[in-house]
Queue: 2 jobs
Job 1
Amino acid sequence: MQDVGKSKAARALDVEDLSVRYGQSLAVDGVTLAIEPGEVVALLGPSGCGKTTLLRVIAGFVRQAAGRVRVDGATIDHLPSNQRNIGIVFQNYALFPHMTVAENVAYGLRARGNRGPEVQAAVTRFLDTVQLGAFHQRLPRQLSGGQQQRVALARALAIEPSILLLDEPFAALDRNLRLDMQIEIKRLQRTLGLTTILVTHDQDEAMSVADRIAVMNKGKVEQFDTPVAIYDRPQTLFVNGFIGTTNLMNGKIAGLQNGMATVALDAGASLSLPAPAGIGLGAPVHMSVRPEQLALSSVPGPDTWKIEPGLALPIGAQLVHEARTADGTFLKIIEPRRAVMSEAARAYCTLAADARPTLFPRSP
Amino acid sequence: MRTMTPPSPDGATSPADGGGKRSVTAEWQLALPLALAFASIFLAPLLMLVGVSFFNDDKISQPGFGQWAKFLGDPFSYKVIADTMLLGVKTVGATILIGYPLALVYLDASPRVQKVLIFVIVMPLLLSVVVRTFAWIVVLGREGVVNTVLMQLGIISEPLRLLQTELGLVISLTQIEMPLMLLPLISVMSRLDPNLRDASAALGASRWRTLFTVIVPLSMPGLVAGCLLVFASSTTAFISQSVIGGVRLIYLPLLIWQQSLVVFNWPFAAVVSIALLISVLTVVSALSWLGRRSGGYVHG
Ligand SMILES: Nc1ncnc2c1ncn2[C@@H]1O[C@H](COP(=O)(O)OP(=O)(O)OP(=O)(O)O)[C@@H](O)[C@H]1O
Ligand SMILES: [Mg+2]
C-alpha cells in the first residue's frame, strides 16, 4: 500500500448550536462540537438520533433551522455543497452504478475541470491506496460490499478534501475487514491530515478509531469527550447506559459530608461515594456500576448486600455471574475465572477495590 | 430497478431446485389453455390480415401480389409512412422536452405536492380520447382559446391556423400522450438513490453536470419506455389524427380507414395495416433494444 500525497494543513471544524427541523420534529437539536484540526470524532448514538442529518448539514445537503458550521473559523453555511470541498462516504456508498470504478474515482476530478493523464494518475494512486488497482474497469455491482466501500472512500479522497465525513462506513463489512478498514482509515486520515467525523452506532468502533466521541441522543449531544472519559465518567444516565454494560441500582442519599454522599441502597447496603453536584439529602438516586467493578463475597458487612446467585457464564478468561438482589434488581458481575465457587461463597456482593460507581438523580 | 437476490445457501439448493423444476413445468402446462386462447384471439386475425393482403381484388377472390405491388410502387405510400413516423418522432421529442423537466420537478416536490401532480398527470388517462381531442379543437380553433388570447394581447392580428396542421396535431398529441411518457419516467426516477445527487454535488459537480452525467443516464430505462409508448400510441392515434389533422393530413391509420370503410378495398387496407405494423414494430424494437442495454446500468 502506498502513501497518498503530502499531508496538508488540517482544518478545524466548528458546529455551533446547530438545529435541523423536519416538519414539526427537531432531528438535530442545538448541537455544538468544536473539532480540532486533524481530529477524528465519532458520532455515536442509537438509530434515528440525528447522526446522518448532522453530517448532511455539514456537507451542505440540508439547511439548518439555526446555528452555524465553520471551517477554520469561516462560516460555510452560504456555500452550496459542490463548493465545500468536503469528502463524504455515504451509509449506502452511493457509487454511480453506471460508471466503472475508475470513472467513479475520477468523477470529482473531472467535475473540477481536470482532464487527461493527470486524472488517470490520481485515479491509479487512490485506487492503489485502497488496494483496488486491479478492479478499475469493474462496475460497482460487480464488487463486494467491502470493495464498494473502499471505492467510495477512494472517490471521496480523490478530491483531496479538507474534511472527511464517514456515515457508518464499516456497517456492511465482516469483522476482519472491518478492523483492516478501521486501521486503514486511521492511517490515511493521519497522513492526509484529515479532520474526520465518523458516524457509527458501534461503540467499540468509536472507542478504537476516534480521538473523541460525541454521544448523541434524540438530536442532542449528551457528552463530547475522549473514549476513556466517556467510559469511566459518563455524564448522563443515557451515556452511562449506552456505553458498555452497566448495572443500575436504586438508592437514596442518606448523608452528605465533605463532598461525599452516603448512599443507602434499596438492596440493603450503605456506601460512601463522591456526591454528584446539586444533589440533596434524601434524594433518590441511581447508582451505576460496571459489572467488572462488582465483586462477590461470602461475608456480610455494612457495605455488602445479599444476593441470590444465578447462572455463571464463562466468557474468555472471565466468569459472568448473574444475580438478583433483595429488592429484585438483576445484576451482572464479572470476576476472573477461579476454582468452582460454592453457593455460600457467592451469597453477598460488594464493590470491587477500584470501583468508581456513578450516581445519577432519579425521579422517585 | 433490479435487486440482487442473494444466492441461497448450498444446503437448501438441491432439493428445492428439483421441486422448483417440476413445478415450473406444471405451471407452463397450466398456462397452456390461456396461451391458446390468446393465440386464437390475437394471432388468428393477424394471419387473416396477412392472408387478405394477398388478393388482387376487393371481392377477395383472386389471389396475387397486386395490392402489394400497388402500395410499394406508389411514392405516395412512402410519403405517408414517413409522415406517420415523423409525427411519432415529433410527438416523442415534444413529450421528452416537456415531460423530462416535469419529472424532475415531481422528484423534487414534497410528498403532498407529488400526490397532486400524480393526479394531474394521470387525469388525462381517465378521460376518453374523444373528449380530449374535442377539447383541443376548442383550444386550437380559429376562435379558440389560443387565438383569442394571442389576438387580445396584440401578438398576432390574424388568427393562427392550428387545426388541420401538423403543429396543432403535435401539440394536442403531446398533451394526450404525456402520461405515457411521465409515468415510466417518474417510476424509474423516483427509485434512484437520492444520495447519488448529493454524492455528485459533494464531489464538486454543478447541478447541470449532475443532471447530464448521473440522472439522465440512470433514468434511460424510463425514458426509453416512455418513448416507446408515446411513439406507438401517437403513430396509431386515429381519432386525434383524423379529427385534429383533418382529411388533408394523411397518416397510415387514416389511409387504412379510407381503404377499408370508404373505398371498401380490404386487401389494400390489409397491406397498409401491415406496413404500419412493421414500421412501428421496427422503431419500437430498436428503442427497446436500447432500453435493455441501458437497463443494465440500473440496479438496487
Ligand atoms: N428527509 C427527512 N424527512 C423527515 N424526517 C427525516 C428525514 N431524514 C431524517 N428524518 C428524521 O430525522 C431523525 C434523524 O434521522 P437520521 O437519519 O439523522 O438518524 P441517524 O442517527 O443517522 O440514524 P441511523 O443510525 O438509523 O442511520 C429521524 O427521526 C428521522 O426519522
Ligand atoms: Mg444514519
Job 2
Amino acid sequence: MLNYDIVVIGGGPAGMAAALKAKECGVDSILILERAETLGGILEQCIHTGFGLHYFGEELSGPEYADRFIQLVNEKKIEYKVDTMALQITESNVVYAVNKEDGLLEIQAKAVILAMGCRERPRGALNIAGTRAAGVMSAGTAQKYVNIDGYMPGKKVVILGSGDIGLIMARRMTLEGAEVKVVCELMPYSSGLTRNIVQCLDDFGIPLRLSCTVVEIHGKDRVEGVTIANVDEKLRPIKGTEQYIECDTLLLSVGLIPENELTREVGIELDPVTKGAVVDEFRETSHKGVFACGNVLHVHDLVDYVTLESQTAGEGAAKYVLGKKDAPEYITTKGVNGVRYIVPQKVNIKNDDDVKLYFRVGQTYKNAKVVVKYNGNEIISKKRPRLAPGEMENVVIKNDILKSFAADGVIEISVEA
Amino acid sequence: MQKNIICVSCPMGCGITVELNDNGEVVSVSGNTCKRGDAYARTECTNPVRSLATTVKVDGGIHNVVPCKSAGPIPKARMMDCMNEIAKAEVKAPVILGDILIENILGTGINIVATNHCPAK
Ligand SMILES: Cc1cc2nc3c(=O)[nH]c(=O)nc-3n(C[C@H](O)[C@H](O)[C@H](O)COP(=O)(O)OP(=O)(O)OC[C@H]3O[C@@H](n4cnc5c(N)ncnc54)[C@H](O)[C@@H]3O)c2cc1C
Ligand code: SF4
C-alpha cells in the first residue's frame, strides 16, 4: 500500500491547480492520477484561443493554458502518474487505481481531491429515430479526431446543439474544408457565447436554426441525411415542418454531465441540479476529507473559473491534512426565483475569509436585480445589465456579514426583473 | 450609414453601433463597454481581422498534427488562403510550444506558431 497526504484524481486544469495550491499551503506528499497519456485534460484538444483572459490577462489556446500549469507541476516536483485510471475510493479514503506498469495500486490518502471533469451527453440520452449508421458522434469526439489525430470525420455536416463546443466545431470543420449545412438548437436561444455565434457561424455564413431539432437519421452503413423539424413551446416537433438535409456526419453538442461514478459509489451526496457533489466553501463533500472541483463539481464555461475554484479546494484539502479545518457550523444556500443552483451549497460561518457564491440563472434577463437574502432579510442587492444561462455569476459574502449569521440559517439568491 | 456589430473581443459580446459617412469613414462608435470595443468596431468596419487557430501536419511525432495559431490577427478575407497554405506545410518532430512553423504567412507579416509540444515518436 502506498501512502500520500493528498491524492488528486484527474490531471486537467482542476487537478493541477488544486495540487499546486495544496503544495503552496505546505503539503508535500501529493500524487495526481490521470487516465490519459498526458496531463492537461480536455484542454489538449481545445486548440482555439479564448482561454485565460481573466486569469492570465491574455488570450491563450487550450494547450497553452494547460502547459503553464504542466510546467509548474514539473517545477514544483509534484508527483503524477499518467495512463492511470482511478477505479474506486473507499470509506477510509483508500484509492484503487490501475496502470500497465504498476498493475493495481492501493493508495491510502488523508485527503482526496476529485477533479475528473465531465463528459458529453451521448446519443443514447437523446431520442432520435432512425438507423445506427456511422457518422453520428459527439462534437467533442470530432474535436479530438480533427485536432489531435489530424483526421476529418466527414465532409457534409449537421450540428445538433448550439453550445460553445458545437459552435467551435462548426468553424473548425469549415476551416478544414467541410460544409456545415446548419446548426439546429432545440431551445429558442443559443446557450453559446454571442461572440462564438459571430465568429464561428456568421463569419462563415452558417445558418443557426432556433427551436429546431433532428427527428430522424437516414442511411444504412453511413449517415446519408437527417430530417429536421421545428418544435413548439413544449419542445415537441411540429408536423409539417420536416425538412430533409443531405449530410454524412451529425455532430451532437447537447450538454455535458459531470463524471461522478466514483463519487456516487462511495455514497457522497450529489446535487440533483449540478449533478456534482454537495460541497462547502472549501469544496469539501459530504465525505470527510474528500474534496471536488472543476467540471466534476459543476459544468464551467470558462476554464479561468475552474482554476480559481480548484485553488480553493487545494487550500481546503491542505487545511484538512494539516489539521487546520475546525469543526464547521453550516448555513445552507438556496437558489430561488430564476436561480437554478448555487455552489457551494453550504458555508461554514466560522470561516475567516469572504466567501464567493457562484450561481447560474435559468433564462436570459436584461437589467435585472440579483438579491441575496439571509433568513428572509435582504443583505445584498445588485443591478446586472445582462444575465444568461451560459454565463456563471457570483456574489461575495463579506466575512463580517458571514460572522453575524447563526448555524442552520439559509442564504437565498434570487433574480428580480 | 449605420452599422450594428457585435464586439467579439471578450465574452461580454457587446452590441455596438457605428456611424459611417459616405466615404466609409467612421464618424462615431457607441454601445461599447470598454476601449477595446471601440478599437474593434473601427477595424471591423474598415479592415476586419481575426486570429486563426488550426493544426499543422507533423512528421515523426507522437501525434499526426500539432496545434498552431496566428501570432497576431490576420485579415478576415485571407483566412481561407492561409488555411490552404497551412494545409501544404509539414514540420518535423520534435515541435516545441512557441516554435515558428510558418514565417510571415502569405506576406501578412504574421507568423504561424505552435501552441503545444509534439515530441518525436
Ligand atoms: C469536449 C469538450 C470541449 C470543451 N471545450 C471548451 C472550450 O472550448 N472552452 C472552455 O472554456 N471550456 C471548454 N470545455 C470545458 C472544459 O472542460 C473546462 O473549461 C475545463 O477543461 C475543465 O477542467 P477539469 O480539470 O475540471 O476537467 P477536464 O479538463 O475534463 O480534466 C479531467 C481529467 O480527469 C481525468 N479523469 C477522469 N476520470 C478519471 C479517473 N477515473 N482516473 C484518472 N483520471 C481521470 C480525465 O482524463 C481528464 O484529463 C470543454 C469540455 C468538453 C468536455
Ligand atoms: S466592448 Fe469591451 S466589454 Fe464589450 S465585448 Fe468588447 S471588449 Fe468586451
